Amino acid sequence: MTTNVILLGLPGAGKGTQAEKIVADYPMVHISTGDIFRANLKDQTALGEKARQYMDAGNLVPDEITNAMVADRLTQADVVANGFMLDGYPRNQDQAKFLDEFLSEQNQAVSAALYFEVADDVLVDRLLKRGRADDTKDVIEHRIEVNKEANMPVVDYYRQADVLHTINGDNDLDVIYGEVKQVLDQVN
Ligand code: AMP
Question: Is 143 considered catalytic here?
Fold first, then answer.
C-alpha cells in the first residue's frame, strides 16, 4: 500500500506551507481540489463550466462532480505509484465516505489525516495580515465559524477511523514540520 495522507485545517492554519515542505521530502503527490477546479475554470473545460456557478458564489461544488474528479485523479499513474496528499478534500462526511469506499476497491486506505489546529485569535491575526483591506475582524471571525462548522465533521470522521493526528499549528513552522515528519515516518 502507498502512503495516503489527508490535510485538514481552517484557512490560515498553515496547510499550504506544510504541504510544500512535505512534498520536498516525501514521494506523495500533492492534490489540491481547489487548484484543479481553478485550472479547469481557466481552461474552460466541461468540468470547469459545471463548477463555475458554485465557485463564483463561494459554494461547494456538488459531491457528484467533485468525487468523480478526485477518483479520476487518484487513478492516474503518479498517484498509484507514490500515494497522495489531499488538500481541500474531503470537505464533508459524504466525501470522506466516498473516498474510503473508492480506496478500499483499490486495496488502499487513508494512512493519516493531519489536522492543523490553531487558536481562533491566532487565525484571526494571520488572516488580518494576509487578507484584503476590506477583511474586517468581524468578517474574518464569521468566516472562521462557518468553516469550523463544515470542518469538524470531517475531523470527527477521521478521529473515529483512528487515523487522526492533531498538530498544534500555533507553533513555529519548523516545530510544526518536526511533528508532521514524526507522523509521516510512522505511517510510511
Ligand atoms: P479552495 O481553494 O480549497 O478554497 O477551493 C476553491 C473552491 O473550489 C471552493 O470554494 C469550492 O467551490 C471548490 N472546491 C474545492 N474543493 C472542494 C470540495 N472538496 N468539495 C466541493 N467543492 C470544492
Answer: yes
